[in-house]
Design brief:
Blueprint (H helix, E strand, L loop, with lengths): L6 H11 L4 H8 L3 H9 L6 H11 L3 H5 L9 H8 L1 H9 L14 H16 L3 H21 L5 H24 L2 H18 L2 H17 L3 H16 L4 H20 L3 H18 L3 E3 L2 E3 L1 H14 L3 H10 L8 H17 L3 H14 L1 H6 L1 H14 L4 H10 L4
C-alpha cells in the first residue's frame, strides 16, 4: 500500500464523493475539525472509535476506509489463510444441511481435542493453522450434532463444541477484515450456543455480539446486552461464569468509554478489578482471557478511547505482561500502545511497541488496520531513510 493510499486519503475521497466539507464531516461524526483534518493529512492515526464515527457519517463500511481485507500475496502464510475463506463461506451457509464429508465424523473425544487445539492456535494468533482446520471441523461437528437424538446430551455437547469453532471462525474473519463473514459466524455462534443449553456459552455468544456492536458504533445496544449478560452470569456460581463476568464488565467499559460515559466506564473497570483480584491470576474462561493484567490492558485501551493518551502511555507502558497472556491479546496491547505513543510524539517508543507486537504475533500485527495507520503516520512524519523502519513498513504493506 503506497503511503498515499492511506486511511486519510480514503476518508478524503469518500468525503468528496459525498460532497461534504471537512467541517461537515466533523459535525456529522461529532469529532473536532482539527482531529479529522489531522487524520486526513496522515498526521495522526485514527482510533477505532473515530473511524466508526466517520464511517457512519459517510455511510460506508469501516473496511472502505481501512482498505481491508489485506489479501496481498506476501508469503505462504498469507496465501494459506486467504485460500480457506471461500470454503468457510460455503460451510457457514450449509450450517443446517452440511455437505457430505468424505469421511464420517471422528469420535467425539478426538473432535473435542481438535477444538481445544484450534482454540489454542487462535489465541496464539496462528491464523494459518486455525484456518486450515475450520472447514472440515465445522462440517464434522455439524453432522455429529444434527445426527444425535434431539435434546440429548450428545447433541448438546456437539453444539457446545460447534459454538466454539464458530467463535474461532468469527475471530479469524474479523482479524483478516472479512467483516461480513464475521457477522455470519457470530449468528452461528448464537445458534449453536442456544442449542447447547449451556448458560455460560449462551452468555459468551451475546458477549461476542456486543463486541461487534461496539465496533460498529452501536454503543447503547452493546451496553444493554452486556448488562443482561452480567445479570445472567451472576446467577451461575462457577469459576467459568465469574471469569466471563469480569470479561463482560471490561467489554462494557469499552462501550461506555466510546459513548462518553466515564462514570459507567470507571464502575465497570473497578468491578472487573475486584473480580480479577479475587481470581488472582490470568485465566481462560469460556475461551476468553481474563485476569488482573487484562483489567490493566483495558484501562489503557479505554484511556485511548477517551483521548487520555498520557495515561495510556504511562500505565500501558508500565504494564508487565504475564508470560501466559495469549499472544493475540498481548500483541493487541502493544498495537494500542504504539498508537498512543504516536499521538504523544514518542516515535522511537512507538516503533519499539510495534516491534514487540510483531514478535508476539506476526500475522495479527501485519493484518491489523491500526498498525498500518500508525506505520503510515510515522513514515510520513519522519520521511527518513532508515532502512529498518522502511523495511517494517514494507512488511506491513506500507511504502513511501
Amino acid at each position: 500500500m503506497p503511503i498515499e493510499d492511506s486511511v486519510g486519503r480514503r476518508i478524503t475521497d469518500a468525503r468528496n464523493a459525498r460532497h461534504l466539507t471537512l467541517q461537515g464531516l466533523a459535525d456529522a461524526s461529532k469529532l473536532s475539525r482539527s482531529y479529522v483534518e489531522k487524520i486526513e493529512r496522515g498526521d495522526r492515526p485514527a482510533t477505532a472509535t473515530a473511524l466508526s464515527a466517520i464511517a457512519r457519517a459517510l455511510r460506508v463500511d469501516v473496511t472502505r476506509l481501512t482498505g481491508q481485507p489485506y489479501d496481498e500475496d506476501t508469503g505462504p502464510e498469507d496465501r494459506a489463510v486467504h485460500a480457506v475463506i471461500p470454503a468457510i463461506r460455503r460451510v457457514l451457509l450449509c450450517y443446517r444441511t452440511p455437505e457430505a464429508s468424505l469421511l464420517p465424523p471422528r469420535e467425539f473425544e478426538e473432535m473435542a481435542a481438535q477444538v481445544e487445539l484450534v482454540n489454542r492456535h487462535r489465541r496464539a494468533a496462528d491464523y494459518a493453522t486455525t484456518a486450515s482446520a475450520l472447514p472440515v471441523l465445522l462440517t464434522e461437528l455439524t453432522t455429529y450434532a444434527l445426527s444425535a437424538p434431539a435434546d440429548s446430551q450428545a447433541a448438546q455437547e456437539g453444539y457446545a463444541l460447534l459454538a466454539q469453532v464458530y467463535r474461532a471462525t468469527n475471530s479469524l474473519a474479523h482479524k483478516l477484515g472479512y467483516y461480513d463473514l464475521s457477522t455470519s459466524a457470530l449468528e452461528r455462534v448464537a445458534w449453536a450456543a442456544n442449542m447447547s443449553e449451556d448458560p455460560v456459552l449462551v452468555a459468551t455468544s451475546r458477549y461476542l455480539l456486543a463486541g461487534a456492536m461496539t465496533r460498529e458504533g452501536a454503543y447503547g445496544a452493546a451496553r444493554q446486552i452486556l448488562r443482561d449478560v452480567e445479570h445472567d452470569l451472576r446467577d451461575v456460581n462457577t469459576a467459568e461464569a465469574e471469569g466471563m463476568l469480569g470479561a463482560a464488565l471490561l467489554k462494557r467499559a469499552v462501550a461506555a468509554a466510546a459513548a462518553k460515559l466515564p462514570s459507567e466506564m470507571d464502575a465497570c473497570l473497578d468491578e472487573a478489578a475486584e473480580i480479577g483480584a479475587r481470581i488472582g491470576r490470568e485465566g481462560i474462561y469460556s475461551d476468553t482471557p481474563f485476569g488482573p493484567a487484562q483489567v490493566e490492558i483495558y484501562r489503557a485501551s479505554t484511556a485511548i478511547i477517551t483521548d487520555d493518551y498520557d495515561t495510556a502511555v504511562r500505565d500501558g507502558g508500565a504494564l508487565v505482561m504475564p508470560a501466559d497472556m495469549p499472544a493475540e491479546r498481548s500483541s493487541h496491547h502493544y498495537i494500542d500502545l504504539a498508537h498512543a505513543r504516536v499521538v504523544t510524539g514518542d516515535r522511537p517508543g512507538a516503533w519499539a511497541a510495534l516491534r514487540t507486537a510483531r514478535k508476539l504475533a506476526p500475522l495479527h500485527t501485519r493484518k491489523h488496520p491500526r498498525v498500518r495507520d500508525s506505520v503510515a503516520t510515522l513514515l510520513r512524519l519522519e520521511r527518513a531513510d532508515d532502512q529498518t523502519r522502511l523495511g517494517f513498513g514494507r512488511w506491513v504493506g506500507v511504502t513511501l
